[in-house]
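Q: What structure does this chain adopt?
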Amino acid sequence: MDADDDLGLFGPGSVTWKVHNEPILLVAGLRSLYLQALHPRAVAGVTQNSSYRSDAWGRLERTSNYVATTIYGTTAEARAAGERIRRRHARMRAVDPRTGEEFRIDEPELLRWVHVAEVESFLTTARRAGVALTDDEVDAYYTEQRRTAELVGLDPATVPGTAAQVAAYYREIRPTLRMTREAAETGLFLTAPPAPAQLSLPWRLTLSLGPPRMAYLGLAGTAFGLLPSWARRMYGAPALPGTELSAALSARTLRLALNAIPRRFVEGPIYRAAMARAARAVPSGASRG
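A:
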């Protein structure tokens, strides 16, 4: 297929494009990081192999660009991005702080945890922020996202592909999750990171909605409030009534604010290129979902 006609792994008819068209997903990115940190090996792998403390915002932007490429890039671009991630992960090792055992960063268990925490965060944040999705669309999103799981080296058949399977996966893995020192430090860092010297859109726009520090704290508070109740308890948060409702209201308010910003200010080059390809596609070939 010519790159000018390639709609990538998904396309205009997919639930993935519907969900990721929402700027509110920047909150989902933070939510997923809070959640991922609760896996002892996953957070150890990050802290022992990442420059997230010294280059937090750069790492966040690189992750955002990777997600945008897999969602909106051409098939070749998405596969190339996945290949780069696989090569990088294949070289990385970490030490389990509990047992002293060395392990590979690309263990399927760890890749699956990161994938599920991420896509569930995208979907949950979108729905709680007011994006209308039917139960069938929710299942379709999880099924579609098996394609991104395959990019990082997972067998799609081993990845939850429906809401029921995701819920079952969480029930199965919860006994292995822990509030470790690394998780606590990561959670604190996510809540109050150093102020960035430079930040590109859409993050700069988000922080410009008010004083930068207070705006970010509100963003992080919303992301944390959208976590499952069991995850918030693991972080030691009190089980206050109305927490989930308050977080949902904050997410809806933020979504309205972000959607009021002219689209040209929140659309990145990868997204714009995808929209241009979609506009040129014939209707019969527009859907990949």
